[in-house]
Fold this sequence. Notes:
By secondary structure, the protein is mainly alpha-helical. It is built from 6 helices and 2 strands, in the order H-H-H-H-H-E-E-H. Strands 1-2 form a two-stranded antiparallel sheet. Strand 1 and strand 2 form a beta hairpin. The longest helix has about 30 residues. One of its GO terms (molecular function) is transposase activity. Keywords: Coiled coil. Pfam families: Transposase_20. This is Transposase IS116/IS110/IS902 C-terminal domain-containing protein. InterPro entries: Transpos_IS110, Transposase_20.
Amino acid sequence: MRLQGWIIIRDNLVKQKVSSIKLLATFSQMAKLANVTEAISFLEEQLKSIKEKILEVEEDMEQLIAVSTSLYTNYLLLRSIKGIGIINAIVLLYVTDNFQRFDNPRKFACYCGVAPFEHTSGISIWGKTQTSSLANKEVKVYLTWAAITAIS
């Protein structure tokens, strides 16, 4: 549960970071028309503070995982996979309850929304294959970004 709290806090901080970056870009465009240097410097300080807080939260999450040997072992195994970063590993550990929640990889794939389903009746196919709309979309996003990172 403590990991979930840290994940929520980090997600909120990342949203604030993106918002600050967009606001800073807007004010940079406004700088051509008016003197907004004070606002730009304030936003830059705010962005720096948010980045520092994100790093602090990530360190706290890693310390929380390091307390448990089984969590830490699985965390290191996840981190050894190409494309899996700190946050991906922590989210996977949380969602799978340290790989105790799902007894079958297919169930986990269905839960994440990466397993396609066919629309069939007997031998006829009604439509193209699609993933479940009931899936945990946040986990799917993390896995998608991990795949994109591994490909690049």
